Amino acid sequence: MKKKIGLVSVLMISVFFTHAQSFIHPGLLHSKDDLYRMKKAVATKEEPIYSGFKLFSENPVSQSNYIMKGPMAMVGRNPTIGQSVYDTDANAAHHNAIMWSITGDKAYAEKAIEIINAWSSNLKSITGRDAVLMAGLGPFKMINAAEIIRYSNAGWNEADIIKAEKHFKEVIYPVLKNYAPFANGNWDAAALKTVLSIAVFCNDRSMFEDALKYYVNGQGNGRLANYVINDAGQIQESGRDQGHTQLGIGMLAECCEIAWHQGLNLYGYDNDRLLKGFEYVAKFNLGNEVPFVETLDRTGKYHHKAIARQDRGPLRAVYEQVYNHYVNRMSVPAAYTQLAAEKLRPEGPGRPGADHPGYGTLFYSKKVGDSLINKSEVPVAPAGLVATAHRTTIGLSWIMPVGAQKYTIKRAEKAGGPYKVIVSGLSASKFEDTNVKLGQLLHYVVTASNSKGESVPSREISISVGLFGRWKQMDIGKVRNSGNTQFCDQTYYMDASGTGIDSLKDSFHYVAVPLKDKMEISLRYVPQISSQFSSFGIAVRETTMANSAQFSLSLNPGKSDQIEAPNWHVRFSERSKDGGPIRLINTVENLPESTVTYGRLTGYYWLRLKREGKLLSAFVSSDGKNWSNAGVASITFNNGFVGFFAASGMPNNTIVKFDSIDLK
């Protein structure tokens, strides 16, 4: 009998429903109201918008007679292939789309359409070690241009629109879909803003929700709480340099503007955490001192002991957007962000290349009250629903819809309902359910309401406190932080510390059931991990003691002078009953490019252990269909445990994801 692994300490399943809720267009950086506001202000020479427009209109890429530099079939970054070619054309497409909206001159629309069509028809691949940045920066401009043109009666052919959708989803999105948890947070931020943009342009609600969930609860440095690391506003890259610090926080803000135009107050998430980051960055770059705490990031590669003074002072064109949102849209003070915006005004281009849209004075300038929260419409559904199981309770949190006043939590004992209201009239965007039973699987949705009515439900999330069946989770040996495992949308998330199985005493997080005389366990690694010091896989153990006899089949980074590109390989190893050192049975080197690119575990990989009496066989696969023998051993004990494990290999915890875990 094939048996699914039961719930580990926290079971969390996301079931996505298709709601009637549709996207708002145009709805990326620029809404219909924004475009009208710019057009009207330029016509009446209203300041400071008009000064911003003059600066914008003088840019060589803002001209309807701009001559394209591309297209190309391949672009890449590190090694560079056509990076400036693509980025300049993307800037031109975006600028011409804006110029068309402001002036009504069809020549600008035609130029934007020409550029979008040319690249959509010709670009086939994005390459290089820094492909995520290549795909996350310039294409963001191209998609924003396409969104404006598509929804402004510009005369864009429907067949070309469909081709652009296909291009964004099949060429750009695959590079970004797993974000970049292995890197500094600006990589995640670049991926997030562009995935959100593709989702809106292509009307893909599941993709949109996935990006929002990563923004608020992802495993990488780009998650909001991992990038703005404390209430003082310190940034994950504050100890690196001030250019990248402004880059990352600026791109997270761009995500917020997109969400706002889709009816979601991502700006306000976690008590305006984004604003704390902006105030910290602006204050320091305006010449003031700020507190700094020593920090090790989520990858384990970037350990900062003091704030970086490199690139301090030059302000990037990211402040007008955030100032105008908090101060003029929300009436929330932002003293240092305001000073930075005023110092740059009128804000110019987002240099270098396509790092930022820039020109915030033109794009975002508002008067107090210009953009009052609209409470005359029913709010959109809450998004980014996160569930956390504690020992006896289940915590829920979500992104607030714009204009929502109250929330209702509904719960069911079966996926899809029927739901019962367990609490209504909540004013906060979080809730702790105390009426839960150990091992009970519960399914939640949240709705938002105001005086005009109640929203459609959020995406369903399912979660249980405790374990099902005989599955147990535990920390083996001495670990710096306790581990935890949960199951979400058919994927197992193992949050672990520990040094691994590479010594006399083990140190890792383990989920296991009792060992049988005949058994088979297999799993699939799901990309990507945040720490390239991690090790993980399947383990058969005699006891839960740190020096227990055991066999393990694991993925390991190996020894490498290049922490950015470790030598990933598979080890089948053994520790004897006398508690001696690890003995290597077999090693599988040179993992395929479908699994490892540039030293990163970017693709799926399968592991399997099979026991038949005293014989233990190991297998590996890069596609889940064709399996290769990875070694055979004679098992020296009858009773024990079998399960899967992970260790971060650094002081911080890491998250490793598995799915397709089957036990026979």
Largest sheet: 14 strands, mixed
Rg result: 26 Å
Q: What is the tally of beta strands? A: 30
- Summarize the amount of helix as a percent range: 25-40%
Report the end-to-end length measured between terminal Cα atoms: 6 Å
* Overall mean confidence score, pLDDT: 93
Structural class: alpha+beta
General form: globular
Low-confidence stretches: 1-19
The number of distinct helices, counting runs of at least 4 residues, comes to 15
Approximately what portion of the residues adopt beta-strand conformation?
25-35%
Short précis:
The protein has 664 residues and is α+β, with helices and mostly antiparallel strands.
Give an account of the 3D structure:
Helix 1 (32-43) crosses helix 3 (83-103), helix 6 packs antiparallel against helix 7 and helix 11 runs antiparallel to helix 12. The chain has 15 helices and 30 strands. The longest helix is centred in the first third of the chain and has 21 residues, at 83-103. It is an alpha+beta fold. Strands 1, 2, 9, 10, 12, 13, 14, 16, 17, 19, 26, 27, 28 and 30 form a 14-stranded mixed beta sheet that branches. It has a 7-stranded antiparallel beta sheet with strand order 15-18-29-20-21-22-23, with no helix packed on it. A hairpin with a 6-residue loop joins strand 5 and strand 6 (303-304). The N and C termini lie close together (6 Å).
